[in-house]
Design brief:
Number of helices: 9
CATH superfamily of the largest domain: Zn peptidases
Distance between the termini: 15 Å
Strand content: 15-25%
Helix content: 25-40%
Order of helices and strands: HHEEEEEEEHEEEEHEEHEHHEHEEH
Number of strands: 17
CATH architecture of the largest domain: 3-Layer(aba) Sandwich
Strand order of the largest sheet: 1-2-8-3-9-16-10-15
CATH topology of the largest domain: Aminopeptidase
Bound molecules: zinc ion
């Protein structure tokens, strides 16, 4: 089956309308919040999506108190025995930049020059910021007005899944097996799968949360949190000779031993890092909070060993000082789990190819909901949603990406019917 021009046109129009509607709903998540979902506003988008899913005649629609939205699309006639697949995207946007009162702007027929923002005169977007822009000359590009992020991460993914669902209803010739849709809250603060009802999801899922057109991600960081506690001794500074053990000062020396070349600001592609996120304390005690990231678990283990060695050295150098090191494994490189899932990956590659795009296998320098799901026994590769420079005021998406990702979803579902 080939997706006709008529269907392509429908997908572009439908996905775009939905996308422009969804980005206007404020859904920033909040890592400091103890509630679930972390912000009430995410429920508003979930409510709207539940209604739209109902209009598209999906079944078993559930919008639970945690903010998750689930829905099932029954298979086309004669495809009842096809293995079900799940499509996942997240409702929230990053705290890094305001997501309130997003006013999307469409820059028609992009000519390769600088894009300016009406609400931020100092801001501009050009090919130096994002080399992919040079491939998007002639396309329509959506940005914010420069005062907020756009929210293509991940409302593009939501719009694409919804547009594919709308196409399945309107064009019955598009064959598919059973499909489960799941929209998750709080992905950006790492809680996206914390309250997920695993039993409602099929054995194979895909997130639509990647970046540029054509991308398929089957690998992510192996991720650790590290906390280093320094316990010193305070004495009046005038009488402190040979007595004071200044915890925070020693902590700053200790942290300066971390290799500068292995920091987020000096690494890219497959190189991992130490990232100091917080240091607080006083003479008595100080605490440093770090994350360690690498594609290779061994490299992270070496970083932990290095911190252990520094602890030993510093306790020798400053008698009386106590250092406490704690490591927490946050998530695995999902390749560990996806390596065995040749079929799920092969079909995703095929679908991207059928949509007329070059397949770009990419490694995520972070994690997704799929990372945790893969760990929980639901292998979940990540397909592009089309947005670039996410978590930024310069975030943008070519409208063609909305159409192409929806096409990929339709081809993917069709590919599964042949298995
Ligand atoms: Zn995302």
């Amino acid at each position: 089956m080939k997706i006709s021009k008529e269907i392509q046109k429908f997908l572009l129009q439908d996905a775009m309308e939905r996308f422009l509607r969804y980005v206007k709903i404020w859904t920033t998540s909040d890592i400091k919040s103890a509630s679930f979902p972390s912000t009430e506003n995410q429920l508003e988008l979930g409510k709207l999506l539940s209604k739209e899913l109902k209009d598209l005649e999906l079944e078993d629609i559930l919008h639970d108190k945690f903010g998750y939205v689930y829905a099932n699309l029954p298979p086309s006639e004669g495809f009842e025995k096809v293995k079900p697949i799940g499509l996942i995207a997240h409702l929230d946007t990053s705290q890094a930049v305001s997501g309130k009162d997003v006013k999307p702007v469409i820059h028609e027929n992009y000519d390769g020059s600088e894009i300016l923002f009406s609400q931020n005169e100092e801001l501009s977007l050009n090919i130096a910021d994002s080399p992919q822009l040079s491939e998007y000359i002639g396309l329509d590009i959506i940005t914010s007005q420069g005062d907020t992020l756009l929210g293509a991460d991940n409302k593009a993914g939501i719009a694409e899944i919804m547009a594919a669902s709308a196409a399945w209803k309107k064009f019955p010739e598009l064959n598919h097996g059973p499909i489960t849709i799941c929209f998750t809250p709080d992905e950006e603060i790492g809680r996206g799968t914390r309250k997920i009802k695993k039993n409602l999801l099929p054995k194979n899922c895909y997130t639509l949360d990647g970046s540029e057109m054509g991308q398929l991600e089957i690998e992510c960081f192996d991720a650790w949190g590290a906390s280093i506690k320094f316990k010193g001794l305070n004495v009046h500074p005038g009488y402190a000779k040979n007595l004071m053990i200044n915890a925070i000062h020693i902590a700053s020396r200790f942290l300066s031993e971390l290799p500068e070349a292995e920091s987020p600001e000096h690494t890219e592609e497959r190189v991992g890092f130490y990232h100091l996120m917080n240091l607080e304390g006083n003479e008595e005690k100080a605490t440093a909070t770090l994350i360690l990231r690498d594609f290779d678990l061994k490299n992270n283990q070496n970083r932990m060993k290095y911190l252990e060695t520094l602890k030993t050295l510093y306790e020798l150098r400053y008698p009386g000082l106590k250092i406490e090191l704690n490591f927490l494994h946050q998530y695995h490189n999902m390749l560990t789990f996806l390596e065995k899932e040749e079929k799920a990956i092969k079909l995703a590659k095929k679908a991207i190819d059928l949509a007329g795009l070059e397949v770009k296998i990419h490694s995520i320098r972070g994690g997704t909901d799929g990372t945790k799901l893969s760990e929980k026994g639901i292998p979940t590769p990540n397909i592009f949603a089309g947005g670039l420079l996410f978590h930024s005021r310069k975030e943008y998406i070519p409208t063609l990406a909305l159409q192409k990702a929806a096409e990929v979803i339709i081809y993917l579902a069709e590919q599964w019917t042949n298995e």
